[in-house]
Amino acid sequence: MLLPRRALFVGAFQHSTSNHLRHRHNTLRPLRDLFSASPTSRSSSSSSSSDNPKKKYVPEIPPLEDPSSFPSWSYEPRDYFQYELIYQSKISNARVGRIHTPHGIIDTPGFVAVATNGALKGLDFRQADEAGQQLVFCNSYHLLLQPGPEVIEEAGGLHKFINRPNRPLITDSGGFQVFSLAYGSVQESLESEGELKRAKKNKRKDQNKPSPVKVTEDGVYFSSYRDGRKIFLTPESTVEAQKSYGADIIIPLDQLPPYHIDRQKLLESVDRSHRWEARSLRKHLEDVKQQAMYCVVHGGVDIELRTHSVDYLTSLPFDGYAIGGSLGKNSEELIELLDWMMPMFEEGHKKNKPRHLLGIADEESIVGAIPHGIDTFDSCYPTRLARHGTLLTRNGKVNIKSGVKHSKSYGIPIDDECNCPTCQHYDRSYLWHLFKAKEPLFIQLATVHNIQYMNDMMAQRRQEILDGKI
Fold first, then answer.
1. 241, 239, 237, 270: which is closest to 252 by C-alpha?
2. Closest by CA position to 313, among listed 305, 324, 302, 321
3. What are phi and psi of 6, to 5 degrees?
4. Which DSSP string corresponds to 452-469?
5. Which tens digit of pLDDT belongs to each residue from 324-335?
6. Percent of the chain scored above 90 by pLDDT?
7. CA distance to 100, 154, 448, 460, per residue, from 138 (Å)
């Protein structure tokens, strides 16, 4: 299975669901205090508490911001952004709805295509729109380095810059890409158990090399992969950049821990994310500009940490909820996490706001997550598959590279039920030829089909919820 881009941050701690949910903490205290009396030993294998009776030094950290410190008007409904519930399933937490934004409607559950540099790989936005694509995700980190927020702002904002004036956009904080510089890619982290594969290959060369990322309470330092210049990203500066972009939905800065991390460090990371997100929110509220801001819920697969994150962040005036951080290394772990976490979002005002699953939109995960009430899913899953010769169909994936199977599939489209231009005009034999010949046209034809397939699949899921099947 293709691993999602944010699935790198897999929590390493499993706890009894029923036991922890019976002892749910509704507190605004820092997580360090919340777990200060935990009976779980956190001593290293090289020494025990009896060998070293001294308490571990815990640096002083700022308190979490009180929800009452935010202006009262920020808790009022927005006239430019709202979630409209159309139908709530009678047999699960699945729901059909619409998210209203200044640049158009998002039908939910819905797929969100990823345009990393403000462009979908292998596909023009007009083609994506015709394939039913509504919300598109752009990455602040890459846009920050090239062309820069000032260029996009002078162009009239991201909608005008990419010439997509009548469809909604979402941008992230850039935090995922920054922390990936330190921890490596998803695949590297999972396969090397937290040690970068490239570090193994160049052990002597890199053993004294400092980390490319430095985290402080104020923000995070990193170097541009384009020109090497030092950049300091803060909760405030990432909001300022996203104000320049002008996306309909923006994301606050959060800290993303690596795959292997002990519970104390995960606890400290979650706490820092809460402080950074509150700072981002405060900066956003200084000049809203008809943009909505989603919080990012953290805590790994640790029930108590995740519960605390939900309780704290949903007490602040965010416009929606993004599920991020450690989401499990496969679909089974993800669904297990959603099974005990998502009922928390059915309580009170939380059910009136949209919920987004960050970086995960493979078919298996979508099918498993929709019954738990997830509204939108973003991933480069279909576009990446297309570039590597995998086509999505109602009868399973088609690997067009298989010469014996597809080289003479004359007159056979990718999917008989698909109405995309590729399926209407070309057969598998021709697509096999284009792929083998490394013709750029293949990427375009394959990508438009996969995007069409994802949006058709989501439309089908919405209908199945309405029909009482989900």
1. 239
2. 321
3. -105, 5
4. HHHHHHHHHHHHHHHTT-
5. 987 887 889 999
6. 70
7. 19, 18, 18, 26
Answer yes or no: is pLDDT of 34 > 50: no
Peptide bond into 109 cis (omega under 30): yes
3-class SS at 287?
Answer: coil
Say what the pLDDT of residue 196 is: 36
- Tell me the pairing of strands 249-250 and 398-399: unpaired
Question: Is it true that the peptide bond before 149 is cis, omega within 30 degrees of 0?
Answer: no
Residue position matching structure tokens 């460090």: 265
Are the C-beta atoms of residues 426 and 413 closer than 8 Å to each other?
A: yes
Stretch among 31-40, 67-76, 447-456 having the lowest mean pLDDT: 31-40
Mean pLDDT of 344-373: 96
Look at residues 384, 379, 351, 353 and name the one whose alpha carbon lies nearest to residue 366: 379
Half-sphere exposure of 176 (CA within 13 A, CB side): 23
List residues with catalytic annotation: 172, 378
H helix intervals, 71-224: 125-130, 140-145, 149-154, 158-161, 175-183, 186-192, 197-201, 203-206
- Tokens at 184, concatenated: 């490596």
R_g of the chain computed on alpha carbons: 23
